[in-house]
Design goal:
The complex is a heterodimer of chains A (about 170) and B (about 80).
Chain A (H helix, E strand, L loop, with lengths): L4 H34 L3 H35 L9 H32 L11 H20 L6 H14 L6
Chain B lengths: L29 H23 L8 H18 L5
The chains are: A mainly alpha (about 170), B mainly alpha (about 80).
Chain lengths: ~170, ~80
C-alpha cells in the first residue's frame, strides 16, 4: 500500500500533530504531577490533581490512541514500512508500551482526582511521578528516533529489499 | 516524521569492519543492542521493585480502595449487616 503524495502529507501532518501533541501534553502533566507531589498549599495541590484527571481523560488518552493508530497507518503507507527498519519498529514498541501503561494508569489518576476533591488532605496522596517521568522519557526517545532515523534494517526488511532487487533486475538475455 | 529520505538505507557495514555478505541477512546495529540492554536492565529493575514491594501497592485501589472498603463496612454494620 502506498499513499498518493497529497494523502501522504495529510497522514504525516496528522501523525506529527498527534505525536508531538501527546509529548507536549505529557510534559504539561509532568508539571502538574510535580506540583501535586511537592506542593504545600492544599488548594493548589487539589487543583493539580483535578487538572491531571481532566488532562488524562480528555487530552492525553485521545492523543495517545490517535498517535499509535495514525503512526501505524503512516508507516504502512510509505516505503519505510512498519517492520523493515529498526528505528520504526522500536518506535512502534515504545509508543505501544507507553499507550498500554497509560491506559492502565488512567483509573489511578481518576481515583487520585476523586480523592483530592473528597475533602481529605491531597498532600498525602503520592502522585504518579514515576509514570509521568517514564512516559516523558519514552516519548522523547521516540522523537529522537523520528528525527535521526538511525540506520539498520531488520531481517524482514532485508528479505523485502532482496526480493525487490530481484524483481528490478533485468531478465538474462538468451 | 517518517519522511523517507533514505528508506532503503542499510547500515550494517557502518557498524562492522567486515565486508557485508550479500546473501546473509545483516545483524542488529550497535545502537539497537545498546537500547535492548538498557530496556532489559529497566525491566529487571521494575520486576525487582514489584516483587520486593519497594514500590508499594500498585493500581488504582492503592490510595482510595482501603478508605472505600472501610466506609462500606461501617455503613453495613450501622444498617444491621444487610449490606
Amino acid at each position: 500500500m502506498r499513499f498518493a503524495p497529497g494523502m501522504r502529507k495529510v497522514v504525516l501532518l496528522t501523525h506529527v500533530t498527534t505525536s508531538v501533541g501527546w509529548l507536549g501534553a505529557v510534559l504539561a502533566y509532568l508539571a502538574l504531577d510535580i506540583t501535586a507531589t511537592t506542593g504545600h498549599d492544599v488548594e493548589t495541590v487539589r487543583a493539580a490533581y483535578v487538572a491531571m484527571g481532566v488532562m488524562t481523560s480528555y487530552v492525553i488518552v485521545p492523543l495517545a490512541l490517535a498517535s499509535v493508530l495514525i503512526g501505524v497507518v503512516n508507516a504502512l503507507g510509505t516505503p519505510w514500512g512498519l517492520l523493515r527498519h529498526y528505528w520504526v519498529l522500536i518506535k512502534l514498541l515504545l509508543t505501544a508500551f507507553a499507550a498500554t501503561v497509560l491506559l492502565i494508569e488512567v483509573s489511578t489518576v481518576r481515583h487520585l482526582a476523586d480523592a483530592a476533591v473528597s475533602g481529605a488532605d491531597p498532600r498525602e496522596l503520592p502522585g504518579t511521578l514515576l509514570h509521568s517521568v517514564g512516559g516523558s522519557v519514552a516519548l522523547l526517545l521516540v522523537m529522537v528516533l523520528s528525527v535521526y532515523k538511525p540506520r539498520g534494517v531488520t531481517r524482514y526488511g532485508w528479505r523485502r529489499q532482496q526480493a525487490q532487487r530481484r524483481e528490478q533486475r533485468p531478465a538474462p538475455v538468451r | 516524521m517518517s519522511t523517507p529520505s533514505r528508506p532503503s538505507g542499510d547500515d550494517t557495514a557502518a557498524t562492522s569492519d567486515r565486508e557485508p555478505d550479500p546473501d546473509t541477512p545483516p545483524g542488529a546495529p550497535r545502537w539497537v543492542k545498546v537500547l535492548a540492554v538498557i530496556a532489559g536492565v529497566l525491566a529487571l529493575l521494575a520486576l525487582i521493585v514489584v516483587l520486593t514491594g519497594l514500590g508499594g501497592e500498585h493500581g488504582p485501589g492503592r490510595h482510595t480502595g482501603a478508605g472505600v472498603t472501610v466506609g462500606v463496612t461501617t455503613v453495613g454494620t450501622v444498617g444491621g449487616g444487610e449490606v
